[in-house]
Write a structure and sequence with these properties.
33 helices, 36 strands, 31% helix, six-stranded mixed β-sheet, protein-macromolecule adaptor activity, four-stranded antiparallel β-sheet
Length: 1176
């Protein structure tokens, strides 16, 4: 019941601020309140994963086109004096023009090879149009569908034209020849990347886009109108996947500063560290680093690919910073395309960010297509400047004195910033900008452990965090780390991979190669795990706070988890671990050949199956000789003869018997799923019964089929054994066998298969058959499609268990649970409920301590929809549950309103015989017990919601049919979470609701039913009243043969009520139908007191606090007695003028705290009586 804001301010339940809740309420365990009980068993909604590049590319060919014409300046560019000269860090005037051109071309190729060493490079130095065409078409032909790079240096030719032309030379170098970008597009094809290092380069980008749009229009026209002239021409290639990088805008000239290289844009793209250090030294801030000169920068030690050296560390930091800037600024899809699709493209664009920063400082704006947002002012550039400053400040002493290089604190500081974001940030916040740096740090052994820890904490924030990490590029990093031999990394890697796989399960393929070596031992490990589960608690994905739970096996909001496999020993004896998988595949339900979803653990999902098949000593465990003989005779003509011949105590019989139990499970989803399995197996057995064609010997000899059995084989005919194929006409019934004393509820329609309907009858074969004849085809008038029955069997029998379990790993597990967060709504609601409980206890105690002299003030009366059979007060709110035969009605006895009325779901000819509130002090659940042994637990009742079944199971599997049975009686211990069940059986069965398994069967030692149960958790005692008049006391700490510690036989008739007082020296109070009330001291063999009440009792209850007991008689009256046996109230009529006589009493119950008595009678009326008003 949830807290209502109006209820909080109600004077009836208003709580003073100084009141404190009873601390015991906080300590009490909660039953059936874990995630598997409250959540729908389904996986989380899959997030669209855009990080996985389906069209990953590789730049395989590079065309280097240099139009320098060394020594001759182009006519439309007036250069300053002095002017920038260096091309690829070479002064072209320092050597002959031809040699300079060749050297520059070779250097440019080397610079590109640093980024993509395996590409095919072709140089075209001062080329003609034909040479460019030949080069481009050749590279495209060899590259096929891969990417080709076209690098154009136009420093020695005029600027590009507005018509979309760049310039090259004629053969004699006497003229500049225009080269149309449209033609270049045609030769280069797609995908391609173009780099333009020349003045006014933005014109080329604009022209390229215009021509690309023109091509798209031509393609559309040709596609719509095949007769159009354009359709007769070769189709132009699409330019959609082309990338462009240009040195400046359409109206800008390249910088001519003599301290800079002439190809500043190319230097930024291919030698970023070198130009970045030179540019840093040219800034005013460089004066803060004494002793560093441009010449000293050339001597910086190390290699770019060695992160332990100064140069390598700077390159590593530069990569991390540019990656971080791009990830934080660019849209996710554009980042994936430019920075994760192609290694060379990613490197060029990282360096392009540096080019934008440097060239903008000289009033030159690099251009890209697709266009990037401005990044030159990003805050991470300050971190780069600091890292460069720290490195360069060490250079003089490193070079001159040979001192050791001190590594940059950059990565440690960024990890600290990331940690601050994780620790101090609010829940709804922007992604951390350091995430790409964290992934770069995984490359470092020094910071790897800390980085993995922080990464795991970030992934724990939820699926969105995992998606972000995958978009950055976490996958190759953590996949590589799986091969690490460092043991300290393994727990972190397991956690990280669990988070990743929970969000993107397709990545499990990447791990498959790591588990192949363990595949042969899988069955052995699985069986060993099942065996050890009996003795060791196993962490559950459903609940981190309370270990010891296994994942559930039911696809529903109400899911008992997997019970221990009690029949494990028998299974193991029947089949070894190596052939277990093959054995289970014989029960394959899928025609495509996939194994059925059975496992040894699933064999005891039903508690009834667990209890029945729990021990080889159980008589029901072994099939009867008649059943076995029948199975053998039925299967004598079948293909399953070899299967049955293995062992009738084998895994096949076990599975079949469990399926029969599950088909009768009280939980609808479980029974429906088992019905599908049973019908599928029976259908398959029927189909296998079709006679196989026997090859004729000669042309005259015919082979007749074996004589069919006289009866078709239905599921219910096979008893407890799997259905055997028969050659007779056989059909599949919709009704699965259930215990003969039970039928389906009237409101639940019989199960009908969702696909394919009933299995078809086997068709009769002619006495004479042709060779290789497969038998008659099904008659067309049957109206079924040929694939209908295939669909019937291959219908997916799936649950959401795996996806739901995986969802646990996708959710935060390090976060403080809401119920433990002192400021959370859930915590405040609990605190309110516990304060309410304390108030009820205190106020009711004050009334009962003063003594109750009368109890006949009628405070509630109403007509119930059905004859009340069981009533139960909620211990703390004003709700009372009234059960009739198969439904439950909830009333607010204070307001006189009906709150809810719903169907319990028990079959016809069964009735509700007992009810208990679970977690009555907190989030209440209602347990109902019916006389067929089924237990059902409900939530969301009496609060304007649809009642929902939390779980249901067969509490007692061997209920004995009697003419006047006690049904099923239960008693609940909130302190221990134990549920005591008994009734028309010869045992008291104890269930542990936390582990959701049977923990003990206590034999009653009597031949009569148990009519009443009462237990005391402090003394571990159970008191049972029986139908033969005996009262038996059991100590559940002792073994089955010694646990009955006392038997009282003073009653001569049916015990209506046996009550064990909860005090340390509490007595046993028992009452029989004859009206004799006896008080027993558990340590003495005889009663210590006897009181006589009215005879013909039909109901009785004892107030746990007020020393009162009330008797209801079939003679239409209620008598209330005090502890001395004095009648304090005698109720025969309903209140009011002309009050009518009350009906025969069918049930009554005291409130656990208040002096209230609820009475249900056979005239459908439900009334509540209380102490006189002056006491209340």
């Amino acid at each position: 019941m949830k807290m209502d804001s109006d209820l909080l301010h109600s004077p009836a339940v208003g709580l003073a601020e100084e009141e404190e809740a009873d601390m015991n309420d906080w300590k009490l365990p909660l039953a059936f309140m874990k995630k598997r009980h409250s959540e729908k068993i389904e996986g989380s909604k899959a997030l669209a994963q855009s990080w996985r590049m389906k069209d990953r590319m590789k730049t395989v060919s590079v065309a280097l086109v240099l139009c320098l014409n060394v020594g001759v300046d182009p006519p439309d560019v007036v250069k300053t004096s002095p002017c920038a000269r260096l091309e690829c860090w070479i002064d072209p005037l320092s050597m002959s023009p031809q040699k300079a051109l060749e050297t520059i071309g070779a250097n440019l190729q080397k610079q590109y090879e640093n980024w993509q060493p395996r590409a095919r490079y072709k140089q075209s130095l001062d080329p003609t149009v034909d040479e460019v065409k030949k080069l481009c078409t050749s590279l495209r032909r060899n590259a096929k569908e891969e990417r080709v790079l076209f690098h154009y240096n136009g420093h020695g030719v005029p600027r590009p034209t507005v018509n979309g032309e760049i310039w090259v030379f004629n053969k004699n170098y006497t003229q500049y020849i225009p080269l149309s970008i449209y033609d270049l597009q045609t030769w280069m094809g797609s995908p391609s990347i173009f780099v333009y290092d020349c003045s006014n380069a933005g014109i080329i980008v604009k022209s390229f886009k215009q021509f690309a749009l023109q091509r798209e229009q031509e393609l559309e026209v040709a596609a719509i109108n095949p007769s159009h002239p354009l359709a007769q021409m070769p189709l132009p290639p699409s330019m959609k996947n082309c990338i462009q990088l240009a040195a400046c805008e359409a109206s800008e000239l390249l910088p001519m500063n003599p301290d800079l290289p002439a190809d500043l844009f190319t230097s930024c793209l291919t030698t970023p560290i070198k130009i970045a250090l030179r540019w840093f030294c040219m800034q005013k801030s460089a004066k803060l680093v004494p002793g560093v000169t441009l010449d000293l920068i050339e001597k910086i030690p190390g290699r770019l690919n060695d992160r332990r050296t100064p140069l390598g560390e700077l390159n590593w930091i530069f990569t991390a910073i540019t990656d971080t800037i791009a990830w934080n600024v660019l849209p996710r899809d554009l980042f994936q395309k430019l920075f994760r699709q192609d290694l060379l493209v990613a490197s060029l664009f990282r360096n392009f960010l540096l080019a934008e920063r440097i060239m903008r400082s000289y009033n030159c704006t690099p251009v890209s297509s697709p266009r990037l947002p401005p990044t030159y002012m990003h805050a991470m550039w300050q971190a780069w400047d600091l890292a460069v400053d720290i490195c360069l400040s060490q250079l003089p002493t490193i070079i001159e004195e040979g001192t050791a290089f001190r590594h940059s604190p950059f990565f440690a500081e960024q990890l600290t910033a990331f940690q601050v974001w994780l620790t101090m940030g609010v829940e709804n916040r922007n992604p951390p900008e350091q995430l790409p740096i964290v992934l770069q740090v995984l490359l470092s052994q020094v910071h790897r452990l800390r980085a993995l820890d922080l990464l795991g904490r970030f992934l724990d924030l939820g699926p969105w965090a995992v998606s972000l990490a995958l978009s950055v590029g976490i996958f190759p990093y953590v996949l590589k780390l799986l091969q690490s031999s460092a043991r300290e990394l393994r727990p972190l890697l397991v956690f990280i991979w669990a988070k990743i796989l929970a969000v993107d399960s397709e990545l499990v393929v990447a791990l498959s190669h790591l588990v192949v070596q363990y595949e042969s031992n899988f069955c052995t490990v699985a069986l060993q795990f099942i065996e050890e589960e009996k003795n060791y608690s196993v962490p559950s994905p459903a609940n981190t706070a309370e270990p010891g739970n296994l994942t559930p096996v039911r696809d529903s909001p109400a899911i008992p988890r997997l019970r221990s496999v009690n029949s494990y020993t028998n299974i193991r004896a029947a089949t070894t671990a190596r052939n277990l998988n093959k054995s289970l595949q014989n029960l394959n339900l899928n025609e495509e050949g996939g194994p059925a979803a059975f496992s040894p653990g699933n064999l005891s999902t039903s508690s009834s199956a667990s209890s029945t098949l729990g021990s080889p000593d159980n008589d029901e465990y072994i099939l009867s000789f008649e059943t076995i003989d029948k199975m053998r005779r039925v299967s004598s003509y079948s293909s399953l003869n070899s299967l049955i011949g293995v062992s009738f105590n084998s895994v096949y019989t076990q599975i079949w018997r469990v399926l029969l139990h599950l088909a009768a499970d009280p939980f609808p989803e479980v029974s429906d799923l088992a019905m599908k399995v049973l019908n599928s197996i029976a259908y398959k057995a029927t189909m296998n019964a079709r006679p196989q064609r026997i090859l004729d010997s000669g042309s005259l000899t015919q082979s007749a089929p074996a004589s069919p059995t006289s009866k078709g084989t239905h599921i219910h005919q096979a008893g407890g054994s799997p259905p055997m194929p028969s050659t007779s006409s056989s059909s599949l019934t919709n009704d699965v066998p259930k215990p003969p004393t039970r039928e389906q509820p009237a409101s639940r329609p019989p199960y009908t298969p969702t696909l394919g309907g009933q299995a078809p009858h086997s068709h009769q074969f002619p006495r004479t058959r042709k060779m290789f004849d497969k038998g008659p085809e099904q008659a067309a008038e049957d109206g079924d499609e040929p694939g209908a029955h295939r669909n019937y069997i291959s219908a997916a029998l799936q649950t959401g268990l795996c996806d739901w379990s995986a969802k646990y790993f996708a959710q935060p597990v390090m976060k403080i649970p809401e119920e433990h967060d002192l400021e959370s709504q859930v915590r405040m609601e609990r605190q309110w409920r516990f304060l309410r409980n304390a108030r009820v206890r205190r106020q009711s105690r004050s009334i009962t301590q003063r003594g109750v002299s009368r109890l006949d003030d009628q405070i509630f009366i109403n007509r119930n929809p059905g004859v009340p059979s069981v009533v139960k007060f909620h211990p703390f709110n004003t709700c009372i549950a009234v059960a009739d035969k198969d439904s439950i009605c909830f009333w607010d006895w204070e307001k006189g309103e009906r709150l809810d009325y719903f169907y319990n779901g028990n079959p016809r000819y069964t009735r509700i015989t007992s009810m208990e509130y679970l977690n009555g002090h907190d989030c209440s659940l209602l347990l109902t017990a019916t006389d067929d042994g089924a237990l059902r637990i409900w939530k969301n009742f009496a609060d304007q919601k649809n009642p929902e079944m939390v779980t249901a199971w067969q509490g007692l599997s061997d209920m004995l049919p009697t003419t006047r049975g006690a049904g099923m009686v239960v008693d609940w211990e909130q302190e221990t979470g134990l549920l005591m069940t008994s009734g028309d059986v010869r045992v008291i069965r104890i269930w542990d609701t936390d582990r959701e398994m049977k923990v003990q069967d206590i034999p009653t030692g009597a031949d009569s039913c148990v009519t009443s149960l009462s237990c005391d958790s402090q003394r571990s005692l159970i008191v049972a009243g029986l139908g033969d008049g005996s009262v038996r006391v059991f100590d559940r700490r002792m073994g089955p043969n010694e646990c009955r510690v006392m038997t009282y036989r003073e009653h001569g008739a049916w015990v209506v009520k046996a009550h064990l007082q909860k005090e340390t020296d509490g007595h046993i109070i028992s009452v029989s139908v004859n009206g004799d009330v006896r008080f027993f001291e558990p340590r003495t063999p005889d009663s210590v007191n006897v009181l006589q009440t009215v005879k013909g009792l039909t109901a009785l209850d004892i107030h746990p606090q007020a020393n009162l007991f009330a008797c209801g008689s079939m003679n239409q009256f209620i008598a209330v007695y005090n502890a001395n046996g004095d009648v304090i109230s005698n109720i025969k009529y309903y209140d009011g003028f002309m009050g009518q006589r009350i009906g025969a009493i069918s049930c009554l119950a005291f409130h656990p705290h208040w002096p209230h008595l609820a009475v249900g009678s056979n005239d459908y009326y439900m009334s509540i009586y209380s102490a006189e008003k002056r006491l209340r």
